[in-house]
């Protein structure tokens, strides 16, 4: 489906058509914990939350590798030579000791510099990431609406008019059922079509464009208006029964922020 968010606080507009690659449900999301087929509403809730989680947590930065732990040179076990004076041997031991101490200090200095560089880079990446998350939080309403639309289009896919429609010539309208290629969407409607256009309308049923206007308010999706169009003609469409309405879709609050005092940093 091609989709669009209407410029309104709580209204979503879904167009039929193609939106390219869609998100998919994994096996657990399709069948649940006990392998039982889930309802479309349950799948919708799972997919919305999965997409939101991905939106906030799937964009974590790629951190550099931590510096390797240092390895200090081992103490040499020196042996006094048979023809080496004690004073010369002691001087050699002291010289080797000083070289080892010097080497260890250099290794420590280099390691501390690597750690500082690493920590500063991680902090910078975390700051950039958290700034992006903050921007997303400020735009959370639109992100939720976009996610709901994407999930809806994935669960129900394309809308169509069931071919078993009947025309009421006296009142000049079709009695038809809107269905979805996936899920359990079904809405019985009347479609006002002038009698002189009725036969051609039915012949071209597969080429009609269906648009649905939904309200997403207080975690519930409610069908507000149905548009059935052909070229520039908009045929008035009215639900016969109670309009489509979901049970509450509970959306988790996703943060996605990274804490500086995390295990990423080297103390």
The profile of the biggest β sheet is: 9 strands, antiparallel
Unreliable stretches: 1-11, 15-21, 31-35
Order of helices and strands: EEHHHHEEEEHEEE
Judged by helices, strands and strand pairing, the structural class is alpha+beta
Count the beta strands: 9
Rg from alpha-carbon coordinates: 34 Å
Approximate shape: rod-shaped
> What is the strand content?
15-25%
- What is the terminal-to-terminal distance? 51 Å
User: What is the helix fraction of residues, given as a range?
Assistant: 25-40%
Please give a structural write-up.
- The protein is an alpha+beta fold and 267 residues long.
- Strands 1, 2, 3, 4, 5, 6, 7, 8 and 9 form a nine-stranded antiparallel sheet that branches.
- Helix 2 packs across helix 4.
- The longest helix has 53 residues.
- The chain is rod-shaped.
- The two termini are 51 Å apart.
In short:
The protein is of the alpha+beta class. The chain has helices spanning 27-31, 40-57, 86-138, 140-156, 198-203, and strands at 3-4, 11-15, 159-161, 166-168, 173-180, 186-192, 209-217, 220-230, 233-239.
For the structure shown, list the relevant keywords.
single chain; 267 residues; alpha+beta; nine-stranded antiparallel beta sheet; 37% helix; 21% strand; rod-shaped
Which helices and strands appear, and what pairs or packs with what?
Blueprint: E1 3-4, E2 11-15, H1 27-31, H2 40-57, H3 86-138, H4 140-156, E3 159-161, E4 166-168, E5 173-180, E6 186-192, H5 198-203, E7 209-217, E8 220-230, E9 233-239
């Amino acid at each position: 489906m091609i989709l669009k968010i209407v410029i309104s606080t709580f209204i979503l507009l879904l167009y039929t058509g193609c939106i390219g690659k869609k998100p998919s449900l994994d096996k657990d999301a399709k069948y649940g914990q006990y392998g039982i087929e889930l309802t479309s509403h349950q799948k919708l809730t799972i997919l919305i939350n999965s997409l939101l989680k991905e939106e906030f947590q799937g964009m974590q930065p790629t951190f550099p590798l931590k510096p390797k732990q240092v390895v200090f040179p081992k103490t040499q076990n020196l042996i006094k030579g048979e023809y080496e004076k004690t004073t010369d041997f002691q001087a050699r031991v002291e010289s080797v000791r000083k070289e080892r101490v010097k080497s260890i200090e250099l290794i420590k200095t280099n390691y501390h510099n690597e750690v500082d560089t690493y920590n500063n880079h991680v902090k910078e990446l975390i700051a950039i990431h958290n700034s992006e998350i903050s921007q997303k939080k400020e735009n959370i309403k639109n992100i939720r609406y976009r996610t709901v639309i994407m999930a809806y289009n994935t669960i129900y896919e394309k809308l169509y008019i069931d071919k078993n429609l009947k025309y009421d010539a006296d009142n000049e309208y079709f009695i038809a059922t809107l269905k979805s290629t996936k899920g359990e969407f079904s809405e019985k409607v009347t479609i006002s079509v002038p009698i002189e256009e009725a036969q051609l309308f039915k012949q071209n049923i597969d080429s009609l464009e269906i648009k649905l206007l939904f309200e997403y308010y207080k975690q519930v999706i409610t069908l507000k208006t149905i548009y059935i169009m052909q070229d520039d003609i908009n045929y008035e469409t009215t639900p016969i029964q109670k309009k489509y309405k979901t049970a509450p879709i509970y959306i988790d609050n996703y943060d996605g922020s990274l804490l500086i005092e995390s295990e990423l940093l080297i103390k």
